[in-house]
Amino acid sequence: MIRIDILTLFPEMFDGFLSSSIIKRAIDKKLVEINLINFRDYSKDLHHKVDDTPYGGGCGMVLMIQPIYDCLNAIRTDDSLVIMLTPDGDTFKQRDAYHLRDVKHLILLCGHYEGFDERIRNLVDIELSIGDYVLTGGEVASMVITDAVVRLVPGVIEEESHLLESFNNNLLDFPQYTKPRDFNGMKVPEVLLSGDHKKIREYREKIQRERTFERRRDLLER
Ligand code: 6GU
């Protein structure tokens, strides 16, 4: 079983995510254990402070190293991979989801406010971002990464589903259709109704290549 510990000051943000759909089912089936840990509980400050004003001046607050240091010391083991969520990190890709699926214990550290004390970077193994935009905190990013990893854990969804999906082989997905055959004149392509599996496979691969070329030429250039 894979264990994912999410270090956050806002555990309530995860309520809907952990109690719905495939993630809930994976937890119920004990395929994954997900723990929310509020690192405020590790603050040695009288008022449980976790952030303070930046040295050198500037606006906003900076997360202090002490609560995060003590929290990580309490939970990390030889099997742990500590990931800091930050817009400065490497961009998370599908191939990273496949790597992280094989780690026994993931620790996802979510920041909030203006940033982390720079020295916190010395406590983590890797830094990840989910894309080139700025979020209010790492929580949504940690849910994105958790979702992408958990769905790849064997038993969570049908194995065959990921073999054909977008980004495997750097190709976008092929289009899918279901009933009815004709909706207000919008028809299902004939070939899909033909029962000729070789033709269907060729048709789908052709569309995948065309669509990736039109929409995501960057994927083909890798
Ligand atoms: Cl991981 N954190 C924040 N705060 N913003 C982001 C991000 C992470 N990834 C993209 N934008």
- In the CATH hierarchy, what is the class of the largest domain? Alpha Beta
What's the total helix number?
Answer: 8
Instruction: Let me know the average pLDDT.
Output: 96
How far the N terminus sits from the C terminus, by CA atoms, comes to 33 Å
Radius of gyration: 22 Å
Give start-end ranges of low-pLDDT stretches. none
Order of helices and strands: EHHEEEHEHEEEHHEEHH
Strand fraction: 15-25%
Instruction: Using the 3D structure, state the CATH architecture of the largest domain.
Output: 3-Layer(aba) Sandwich
How many DSSP E strands?
10
Strand order of the largest sheet: 2-1-6-5-8
By CATH, the superfamily of the largest domain comes out as SPOUT methyltransferase, trefoil knot domain
Q: Helix coverage percent of residues?
A: 25-40%
Largest sheet: 5 strands, parallel
Heterogens: 6-chloroguanine
Oligomer: single chain
Key words describing this protein structure:
222 residues, alpha/beta, Alpha/beta knot, Trp Operon Repressor, Chain A, five-stranded parallel β-sheet, 8 helices, 32% helix, 20% strand, elongated, binds 6-chloroguanine
